[in-house]
Write a structure and sequence with these properties.
This protein is of the alpha/beta class. The chain is built from seven helices and six strands.
Length: 198
């Protein structure tokens, strides 16, 4: 399915973020991640009829912070993102991807909050290697089969490129940066990856 740049960026899309809140991220890195998400979303037209946003936090466990029908303004989104707490724990990326597939991207006709026949995007943020690379790749594959376009943001030097590639929709959908302090440098390119995805 080919959606134009204007359709995805300015009109209708369901966009979700999965944010790493594991111990290695540290509190400062987690705060930078939240600022990054807010900066990316600032570049979209968020409203009840246009872009809807969902958010999952993960470490040892994964949790939906909010689904696609909870916040329709940037003020509400920013407040909800700011209120999200660092959870520490380990890097179980597969659990976050499974939660995204089974619940967050579940369409309304099946009891979920995602819209049918709407472009769906997921931005996965992580600083490390997941505890189960095989299951992480498997869960990402299942999400992509459901039509979710996945962009991966790998932060720091602990990341494993082969794992990032196994999660992303293509090798062009892998973005890396040296540290959480440099996340702001990739806000524009992240937005473009989401806008330009199929």
């Amino acid at each position: 399915m080919d959606f134009s740049l204007v359709l995805v960026c300015s009109q209708r899309a369901d966009i979700a973020f999965i944010v790493d809140a594991s111990k290695s991220v540290k509190l400062s890195g987690f705060r930078s991640s939240k600022e990054f998400i807010k900066a990316v979303l600032q570049r979209f037209k968020v409203s009840q009829t246009n872009v809807h946003v969902g958010l999952i936090r993960f470490s040892t466990r994964a949790k939906i912070i909010f689904n696609f029908e909870e916040h329709y303004s940037m003020n509400d989104l920013n407040a909800a993102i700011d209120a999200m707490e660092w959870s520490k724990g380990s890097t179980y990326t597969n659990r976050a991807l499974k939660l995204a597939r089974e619940q967050l991207f579940l369409e309304k006709e099946n009891g979920g909050t995602a819209r049918a026949d709407i472009p769906k995007f997921l931005v996965v943020m992580t600083d490390g290697i997941s505890r189960n690379s095989t299951m992480t790749a498997k869960e990402a594959t299942e999400l992509k089969k459901k039509g979710v376009h996945i962009v991966v943001v790998g932060v720091g030097f602990m990341r494993k490129r082969s794992e990032l590639l196994s999660i992303a929709s293509s090798r062009w959908d892998v973005i890396t940066t040296r540290s959480f302090k440099t996340l702001k440098r990739i806000v524009a390119i992240t937005k473009e990856k989401v806008c330009g995805g199929e």
